[in-house]
Amino acid sequence: MDFFKVSFLLYIVSISSLLSFVYGDNFYQDVDITWGDGRGKILENGNLISLSLDKSSGSGFQSKKEHLYGKFDMQIKLVPGNSAGTVTTFYICTGGMNHDEVDFEFLGNVSGEPYILHTNFFINGTGSKEHQFFLWFDPTEDFHTYSILWNPINIILFVDGIPIRVFKNNMDYGLAFPTSKPVHVFASIWDAEDWATQGGRVKTDWSKAPFTAYYRRFNLSNACVWNDGKTDCGINTDWMEQKLDWWSWMTLRWVQMNYLLYDYCTDTKRFKNGLPPECLIFTMQLSSQGSTHDEIDFEFLGNLSGDPYTVHTNVYAQGKGDREMQFKLWFDPTKDFHIYSVLWNPSNIVFYVDGTPLREFKNKESIGVSFPKNQQMRVYASVWDAEDWATRGGQVKTDWSQAPFTASYSDFSANGCTSSDTNACSKANSTWMFQQVDSMGQQRMMWAQKNYMIYNYCTDVRRFPQGLPPECSSN
């Protein structure tokens, strides 16, 4: 959404997901080593494959069968040490000039520097849809599971069951999506020293060769087999309708906020004539992300029985937060539903509780303060464990004997722009686009802040010894 007023009733959600993998049969049965002149080897009675690269050649394998839709899982242990210049892959591809392809590519690096996970989608031969990530672990120390889910709804890439990116089927908007061409599953290791590591500045150190990656637990049990123009999807086809639930969206958002290095959907220098159309559709459904994300927070910090909740609010603009204000509430938020609202328009952001404004963040771009206005956002809700900091600075830990901890939400209302054309939005019945806190609202906000505010970053001179943020002094 591009500006909105959103409210919901909250009855101060514990969601857990258990991910398990049922692995496929045997590499002897499932794949063929297709190139490498002996550098690819099936080991341990068909349970492990090693792929090696030296100065003469890399190596690779592909699935024996073709598949039209599926969930493809592979455990991989990457090349340790100085792997600069190498690329280790796991991907699905149709082949041919107008091929469809979904890529996991692991770009090696010098010793001590992390791998970069490079992902891409090709549809009818057109790619240029790259996302790059750091990983939150060392992928050379142990095996980790990398998964591609491809169904008629979306393509989702997972790492150890955690979603890292989604590509939705937006054919209704005239955008291409792979739906008709069967794929093989491929894996390989090869030399890409011209571009793989620091843009090609760091070359492959062939004295470290051979470079060897290991693959195991290849799972094809949730994939439709293509044979003579027909598909056999087996009995378990739940994955055919799988998409991300709320918790998965939150997890994906965490990954992209903390580990996303490059997103083609934000590269305006590369796409001078406008971002690809799927980027606009995609960002209407996700909060802005990456190192320059925008975010507006209501967070309710739990406490011991009998002690009040703390309402923690924050505003991020262009990746910069540190604008916390905290409040106690003038009621018990666990006894009944109450309305929590965020107003976001070009002039200001206002937080409300039951219609009473708690705080206002004004647009101060005129004095150089960033204000969220160019990135579409999605509305999220969640409950999660923050015992390291949430209650009394982490001194009071979560009592798991009281689990599960459940919150209830109702009467969600989102009156917002779903187009980047805010002028068109303002012409509609959108009085909130021009709404500001009136004099009576200012009095109510002063009452709330005088009686219930327990922390204000704008008064924390110890935290900001070089001077308070500029938006504070201008209030």
From TrEMBL:
Q: Which residues form the GH16 domain?
A: 21-215, 209-409
User: Which superkingdom is the protein from?
Assistant: Eukaryota
**EC number, UniProt record:** 2.4.1.207
Q: Which GO terms describe its molecular function?
A: hydrolase activity, hydrolyzing O-glycosyl compounds; xyloglucan:xyloglucosyl transferase activity
Q: What are the positions of the active site? A: E101 (nucleophile), E105 (proton donor)
Q: Where would one find the signal peptide in this protein? A: 1-24
InterPro entries in alphabetical order = Beta-glucanase-like, Beta-glucanase/XTH, Beta_glucanase, ConA-like_dom_sf, GH16_AS, XET_C, XTH
* GO biological process, alphabetically ordered: cell wall biogenesis; xyloglucan metabolic process
- According to the UniProt record, what class of enzyme is this? transferase
One Gene Ontology term, aspect cellular component: apoplast
Annotated catalysed reactions: breaks a beta-(1->4) bond in the backbone of a xyloglucan and transfers the xyloglucanyl segment on to O-4 of the non-reducing terminal glucose residue of an acceptor, which can be a xyloglucan or an oligosaccharide of xyloglucan
Q: Which UniProt keywords apply?
A: Disulfide bond, Glycoprotein, Glycosidase, Hydrolase, Signal, Transferase
> What name is this protein filed under?
xyloglucan:xyloglucosyl transferase
- Organism from which the protein derives: Carex littledalei
UniProt lineage: Eukaryota, Viridiplantae, Streptophyta, Embryophyta, Tracheophyta
